[in-house]
Amino acid sequence: MSDAPIVVHRxxxxxxxxxxxxxxxxxxxxxxxxxxxxxxRAGLPDAGDLLDDPAWVEWxxxxxxDYTTR
Length: 70
Fold this sequence. Notes:
Blueprint: E1 6-11, E2 17-21, E3 24-29, H1 32-41, E4 57-59
Parallel strand pairs: 1-4
Antiparallel strand pairs: 1-2, 2-3
């Protein structure tokens, strides 16, 4: 487990991944666009640049940028 402030959790059974920022649930993302919007609402206007930075984002239970169940 990392200390990244943004966590993209394992895909849900119906698709999409829960997103938390510093422990606060932001919503269920079905795409990078959804994720970026949640982060913009959390005060990170350039969030698209952070998605592949492990210091900022921890992707749990699946590969980054994949929002489907397997």
